Structures are given as C-alpha cells and as structure tokens.
Amino acid sequence: MGSSVPRRLATAAMLCALVAPLWAAPPAAAQRGYDEAEIRALFDGLRNGTMPSGLAGEECRRGMAATEDAEQLAQVFSAYLDVPEEAALGATCQALVRAIKAGDVSLDTLLLFTQPVTDSGELFEAGRLLRAIFFAHRLTTSASAEGETQP
Amino acid sequence: MRQGSRFAAVAFALLLAGCASSGGRSGDRAAVLDDARAHPENRLADAVACELTLASRSGEFPFAPFFAGLLDVPEAEGSRKFCAALIEAVIAGDFSQADQNAFQTPSDVRGRGPVGALLRTVLIAHERLGAQQAERPPQAQSCGCGQ
Fold first, then answer.
1. Computed over its alpha carbons, how large is the radius of gyration of chain A?
2. B71 to chain A: nearest residue by CA?
3. What are phi and psi of A25, to 5 degrees?
4. Which of A56, A60, A148, B97 has the fewest other C-beta atoms within 10 Å?
5. CB contact under 8 A, A126 and B21
6. Residue of B2, B3, B5, B115 to mutate, interface with A, max A Cβ within 10 Å
7. What is the pLDDT of residues A47-62, one digit of tens each?
8. Of residues B11, B17, B70, nearest to A10 (C-beta)
9. How do residues A4-42 score in pLDDT, each as one tens digit?
C-alpha cells in the first residue's frame, strides 16, 4: 500500500465523485459540474410536490448515466444496494428521491457536493447521504416484497 | 472531480488497509482481519487494533467523519464503530477472505464492486451490533467495548 497517490485528495475526490452525480443534471450540465440552481429547483420540486418522483428519478438516472463515471458508479451502487448492475443507477436515484421526499436529505447536504468534498463536516454529510440512500432503498424493496405477498 | 472516482478503489483499498494492514500485534498487513476470522474470541482486541491502525493514519485522511455519517454516530466514534462493524462482519462470515483478497486485485481488473460491498457489509454489521446491544440487559451494556 505504498501508493504515491495523494490519499486525502484522492479519497475526498472519490467521495465527491460518488455522491455528486447522484443528483445529476442533464448531460450538458454534467460536463461542467452540478449547477446549484438546478439542484435547488429539483429538490424544491420534489419537496413541494410539483416534481413527480418518477420524473426526478429518471432525470437523475439519465444524468448519472451520462457521466464518464457511470460504469464505476453502477459497480459501486450495485454492490452497495444489492441490485443488478444494470439497475443500479436507477435504484440509487429512486432511493435518493425517496430520501429527499422523506426529509432525510437536506438541500444543504446536496449542495455540498457541487464542489469537491474536503473537510470533515462534508465527509460526515457524504456518509449520511450514502446512509440515507441505503435505507431508502431498503424501504422501497421491503415495500415491494410486501406487495408481492399480498393476496 | 471526475478523475476522483478513478481513485475510488485505491482509496477504499487504503481504507480497508487501515484495518487489514499494520496488523496491530503482529505487524502483518492483514493480521487483524485474519486473526478475527480465525479467533472470534479476539473480537475486542482486534477491533482495538483496527482502531489504533486507523488512528495512526489519521494524518492521511479523516476516515472517521465519513464513517460517522454512514453509521449515524458522533464523529468521534466513527473509527471505533467502523472497526467494530468490520470485525463483526468478518466474524459473521459476511466479509470473507475472498472479499478481503479482492482489494489486492487492481481495481481495473476487479471493478468497483468491492467498494460498495464493503460499505454495505459494514453498515449492516453495524446495525446488527446496535440491535444486539439494545437487546442486552442494561448491566451488560456498561462497557460498550469494541462497539
């Protein structure tokens, strides 16, 4: 493990790369990063009910899929959420949408990831966001399983 | 930012190495996890060794805040809870030797799946430990060692 990779920066950048595309804007915006106004509009739309969850989730998925990190993100979230790799980005976005609607993810937390994550507070929020996604996904799958067992 | 994820596997391999390497008592890089796997009765000692290893690397990257957020614990508890959960996962068989070995393979070969799997495994193990602790009688909870 004697890598010369600057570990702090690499890991911070990794966390940012993992988290930031979760609320990706359309590809053009994704190329330049994640625009605060777009994130804010989508977040507000979800919270006040003017943005349908399905639409937000699909936009999120398409945004993630358009990034050059899409394959890596799919690999990570496939294992993290225990879903097939081809469904991983969609599942992640559905979980994120659900977490936002439930109030488990704040706008401030999402906006943190418009810039590289560097300090400990931001890393804490990155961990919280991944946690929220995990449990939101679990709720979704639990609900689906219950629905399948209904007579 | 984009190239950051190229370092994802490296970063998490380093993260894993925080517990899997430096070996606490033996100095062997994978000794802590190997020891926990072979000798579950050493759970607490291995968790402490893991934590000490992470602490010795705290100048390189602040792992504790990230895991504190992931595990929903105070920031100061991040490393300790992460290590307790990782050791629990090893003992429970949820983080196998093969899982551990995967981090020795270049990420370009093995992909990024092991990173997500590790996060999932640690999170589930942490929740299990929390549930177990909640079931214990109050007098058995006074120590909290290794959790």
1. 15
2. A131
3. -85, 180
4. A148
5. no
6. B5
7. 999 999 999 898 888 8
8. B11
9. 333 343 444 445 445 444 443 333 333 444 578 878 888
